[in-house]
Amino acid sequence: MTLPLPTYFADFLQDIRPTKAQRAEMIDGYSRLKERLQSDAQLKTGFVSMFLQGSYKRRTAVRPKDGKKADVDLIVVTRMKESEFTPAEAMACFRPFLEKYYHDKYRQQGRSFGIVMSTVEMDLVITAAPVEAEAGVYSAFAKSEDVLQIEEDESQPIVKTDSNGNPQWKSEPLRIPDRDLGAWQDTHPLVQLSWTSQKNARCSGHFVNVVKALKWWRLVHAGALPDRPKSYPLEHLIGDCCPDGISSVAEGVVRTLERFTQSYALHAANTHAPYAPDRGVDQNVMARISGDDFAKFHAQVAAAAKKARQAFEAPDAQTAAPLWRELFGDKFPRAPEPGRGSPPQGNFTPHQGGPGMVGSGRFA
Question: Gly residues compositional bias: what residue ranges (predicted)?
């Protein structure tokens, strides 16, 4: 027997996605930066391609909270040879451009330039020249992936694939300047994108929404959590722990939190952050996270896993919704009072049957 239930998670996810206005601001900021780079007399001849990267492109971005700004990343593949430019020299090439267009609005970060505008933040990521055979791959990819065509439907492929679900291109890693190490390091943004796209397909389109839900959990409980892991390192760990074949976002949240708790219990007990190689390259995305911070984070995940399991197995909406709200805050809808049709807030949507139906005795 199945029970028709309200689309609580659908309403919750709608309320934590970037708004239409925020998406427009990200597109405007990205497009303006790209156009300025492509028209800059000193730089434009030195570019192979430019393309969007980051959580917006992977469809794992959540709505900014507590005065934060939406952010977007632009990868710039240059013709600069690693043998001819140190990381510092490569980044210095972009300073006149940044001074011209973003004076007092940019800062140099470990591996990129951060540009802070009134409504959006952008990361400008510079890479060294790929080998000649790879230049065409990155140029073709940039032309095929238009930021303005990003789908709102998270179940659709994040990157273009062949009939077997594999990306329509193959590429080698890129090299980015690491200011702190004073060396060029591997990165593979296209593998990050294709891995996320394939993982999402294996999770019936639910994976990116599991990521969004758990990113939001982290924002809601920021005061009780250490500063790290967050952003991409957090997303990476969620990817490692989210099982394939999940049938709902609720199931994905519960099982991801539980697997995280189990998989990293020994690391937490020894106050040691796990080694987590980035997709496609042997770079530890957890390198900047201390053992103490990881142990504190693990303890909060373990508590959240128990709460999520209680909510998932609750017999009715009145029992489950308050538990989910403890995890996700007031963006998660309230349950209607027993015997009443709708809750006091307007974002509740009565479920009409279909994929959102779950087994009797489970509220998700």
Answer: 353-364
